[in-house]
Amino acid sequence: EGLLTALAQEGPDGLGVTVHLIDRGVDTGPMLYRERLMVEPGDTAYSLALKATRRGVALFAQVYRDAQQGPLRGTPQDPAAGQMRNVSAVNPDQLPSDEGRERRIAL
Fold first, then answer.
1. In whole angstroms, how far apart are CA 60 and each of 32, 64, 66?
2. Rounded to a whole number, what is the distance in angstroms from the first to the last CA of the chain?
3. What contacts 24+ positions apart, CB below 8 Å, involve 96-102?
4. Is the overall model pTM greater than 0.90, yes or no?
5. What are the distances in angstroms from CA 10 to CA 15, 74, 77, 90, 99?
6. Each residue's pLDDT tens digit, 3-55
7. How far is Cα 63 from Cα 36, in angstroms, rounded to an integer?
8. Vertex 100, ends 36 and 14: CA angle to 5°?
9. Are 101 and 92 in contact (CB under 8 A)?
10. For a FRET experiment, which of 13, 31, 79, 82 has its CA 20 to 30 Å from that of 101?
11. Could you give the maximum distance between any two Cα atoms of the chain, in Å?
12. Of 3, 10, 1, 5, nearest to 89 (Cα)?
């Protein structure tokens, strides 16, 4: 849902995946990895969510490998740079439709 809100509020440049350490805040821990998603012609809300999931899984696998080498050390987040996504702000009528699209998942 955060992905769809980012798309509705910021457009394609606001889409990405972040893996961070957990601290006492909400999404405030030190970042381990952060990547932007590539939006291509024909992408839909479904395909973008799938891209984000696939990147997230790959990044978690990398974090696991990193953890085998020693303590994880992230980059502190700038509290002024991030924002919580307000899912209620999304108008579903403004999002691309998945209707009529074949759905294939290849991990």
1. 10, 6, 10
2. 21
3. 96/43, 96/44, 96/45, 97/44, 98/44, 98/45, 98/46, 98/47, 101/44, 101/46, 101/47
4. no
5. 8, 26, 20, 11, 24
6. 778 878 888 888 888 898 888 877 788 999 999 999 999 998 889 889 999 99
7. 17
8. 15
9. no
10. 13
11. 47
12. 5
- In the block, residue with structure tokens 């998603």: 37
The candidate with the shortest Cα–Cα distance to 60, out of 91, 20, 97, 12, is 20
Structure tokens at 42: 């024909």
Residues 6+ apart with CB under 8 A from 45: 4, 7, 95, 96, 98
Residue 31 tokens read as 């970042």
Rounded to whole angstroms, the Cα distance separating 14 from 28 reads 18
Q: Please calculate the CA angle 9-41-89 and round it to the nearest 5 degrees.
A: 15
